[in-house]
Here is the input.
Amino acid sequence: MISAQITPIYHVTSPIILASGSPRRRDFLHDLGLPFSVDTAPDAEPTARPDEIPADYACRAALAKTEPVASRHPGACVIGADTIVVLGNEIMGKPRNEAHALDMLSRLSGATHEVITGVCVFLPDGQNKTFSVSTRVTMAAHPVAALTAYIRTGEPTDKAGAYAIQGIGAFLVERIEGSWSNVVGLPVVELLEILTSLDVIAPAQNA
Here is the structure.
């Protein structure tokens, strides 16, 4: 199969490193035609502190994932992110097992929750910018049998909140308020605004 050639929308002024192994985040940058490489800091995700504001935790986790990678790539722009699902004030991580996934999905079913992504951008000069974006997600009410069948697909295994809106889990979601790409794992519009304002990228010019 021949892959379609990507026409760049932006050109870059410094090397870009994605400090994330997420295929979804890689796809967003790839589809924009941005040249980048991937480097990650394994086991860099911190534990949430008691009573920590979820958005603060998401930013702290993004910084923890990005800073070690930035230290290995001086002179590059390093981008890292961490996405969390929040129901009330509870931060939902990835499910430990199928029973945990069913518990999560049962509580999310018929309710509205927040998906928050913290993003950290290290600049070539060593400075960094960290921000978060929140999207409200309302799930339709589904019977336990449907949730169990979804869990059997294996998709929820490594997903915060035990679902993937960009995959089979789209059937769970009734509506969203805010950025769709943020729910997938990267707030693309907000990230591009930051990168453009910092002169890391600029719109590609016609040849």
